[in-house]
Amino acid sequence: MTEVVRLTLVSHAMTDATSAGRFALDEPLSRLGRRQLESGSGPDDFEYALCGPELRTRETAELAGLPAEPEPALADLDVGRWSGVELAAVDPHDLDCWLTDPTAAPHGGESIVELVVRVRAWLAGLVERPARICAITHPAVIRAAVVVVLDAPPASFWRIDVAPLSRTVLHHRTAGWTLRR
Question: What are the UniProt keywords, alphabetically (predicted)?
Answer without folding.
Answer: Hydrolase
